[in-house]
Write a structure and sequence with these properties.
Length: 146
């Protein structure tokens, strides 16, 4: 229901009151078990734990509660140069420049490797690709035989 309200906004007014009520009831059933946090599955019986515990019950309660999350009011908008941003560019910064990260000599020892693709890289990639294609083809052939 939560997804329907997102992709079909005209259903929001019908779905959200029901979804919010179910989310509140689901959260109210999460009082069981040894730790007092296990959730029940019978939300229509009121805000009490029904004694049924398991992964399915936990996930059902989590799902209905999380379905209300996309509809929480946004905190604010991103700020850029057109609506109040004041950051100035710094051409001497050490971020990405010319496609290579951190060109400053102090960072060079920490680079993982030279980013040039060598012939050995290409050959290795070709071999791995060939092995994957052969395994996939043999698997498909095996499935067709049996």
């Amino acid at each position: 229901m939560g997804y329907t309200a997102q992709v079909a906004p005209y259903t929001y007014n019908d779905i959200m009151p029901r979804l919010r009520k179910n989310a509140q009831l689901a959260a109210a059933t999460c009082t069981g078990g040894a730790s007092g946090t296990a959730c029940g599955l019978k939300w229509n019986t009121g805000p009490k734990f029904d004694g049924i515990m398991g992964l399915g019950e936990q996930l059902s309660a989590l799902e209905v509660i999380q379905n209300t999350a996309p509809f929480v009011a946004p905190v604010g908008y991103l700020v850029d140069i057109d609506n109040g941003g004041v950051s100035k560019s710094n051409p001497n910064g050490t971020g990405t420049r010319g496609g290579v990260h951190n060109r400053n000599s102090q960072y060079l020892p920490y680079r993982l490797r030279n980013y040039e693709i060598t012939l050995a890289d290409r050959v290795g990639a070709a071999i791995i690709t060939l092995v994957i294609v052969v395994v996939f083809a043999l698997g498909a052939r095996f499935t067709m035989i049996h």
